[in-house]
Amino acid sequence: MGRRKIVRDGYDKIASQYAVKRTANSEDIQLLNLLVARLQPRSKVLDAGCGSGYPVSQFLSQYFQITGVDFAAEQIRLAKTNLPYSTFVCSDLTRMPFKKDVFDALVSYYAIIHVPRQEHSRLLVDFHRILKTGGLALLCLGAGDLPEDTADYLGTEMFWSHYDKETNLRMMKESGFEVLWYKVVGDPIDAASAHLFVLAQKLA
Ligand SMILES: C[S@@+](CC[C@H](N)C(=O)[O-])C[C@H]1O[C@@H](n2cnc3c(N)ncnc32)[C@H](O)[C@@H]1O
């Protein structure tokens, strides 16, 4: 099976189960306050790889206008039910249908790590393209080197791929971002793993 199909079919299958495991008060969710402190109310924020919308889009929707993107149809169905006043689009992150300079900020939690890492640099450049100048990106990236891995996750086959912290920070800069802050944060579902969270700004 192709790597994309493994991820998409997997999240279609475990959509509800995954949402139940997410928590609304873990450190990753508290980090969203980095955006709350910096953006105007009602700013346009993209949640890239939004899943069911819980808890990331849901938290952000208290302050901002949210658009969510995910390629798993069941995740999008749940997101539309959970957050009827936000906009959700079923699309691959690597082929998003947005014009340039649209969003004031974007977040992407635990999604880029499921995209083959050879595509990460191009994805970051596309994130940069759709942000307004001065826009903010709060991204969850790999903390360690993982060329690719396929394993069981919550009873389904799953695929991961990412670079290490230093490479990811370098790629952010090469994509035109200024890195404002970063931290390796423990995974709230899997205590054995941790990820790099980066807050960056689109330079002119
Ligand atoms: C681990 S879940 C995280 C969901 C949500 N961001 C959260 O923090 O709870 C990863 C999500 O990313 C989506 N995803 C992974 N690769 C994607 C891609 N190439 N295009 C669109 N969505 C993708 C999956 O379908 C899944 O819903």
Question: Which small compounds were modeled alongside the protein?
Answer: S-adenosylmethionine
Strand order of the largest sheet: 3-2-1-4-5-9-8
Largest sheet: 7 strands, mixed
What is the CATH architecture annotation?
Answer: 3-Layer(aba) Sandwich
**Overall tally of structural domains:** 1
Q: Looking at CATH, which topology would you report?
A: Rossmann fold
Indicate the CATH class.
Alpha Beta
For the terminal residues, how far apart are their CA atoms? Answer: 41 Å
- CATH homologous superfamily (4th level) name: Vaccinia Virus protein VP39
Low-confidence stretches: none
How many alpha or pi helices? Answer: 7
Write down the overall mean pLDDT: 97
Q: Could you characterize the architecture of this molecule?
A:
The protein is an alpha/beta fold. It has one domain (3-179): Rossmann fold (3-Layer(aba) Sandwich), CATH 3.40.50. It is built from 7 helices and 9 strands. Strands 3-2-1-4-5-9-8 form a 7-stranded mixed beta sheet, with helices on both faces. A two-stranded antiparallel ribbon has the order 6-7. Strand 2 (65-70), helix 5 and strand 3 (87-90) form a beta-alpha-beta unit. Helix 1 packs parallel to helix 5. The chain is globular. The mean pLDDT is 97. The structure holds S-adenosylmethionine (SAM).
In short:
The chain is an alpha/beta fold and 204 residues long. Helices cover 31% and strands 33% of the residues.
Q: Could you list some keywords that capture this structure?
A:
31% helix, Rossmann fold, 9 strands, 204 residues, alpha/beta, binds S-adenosylmethionine
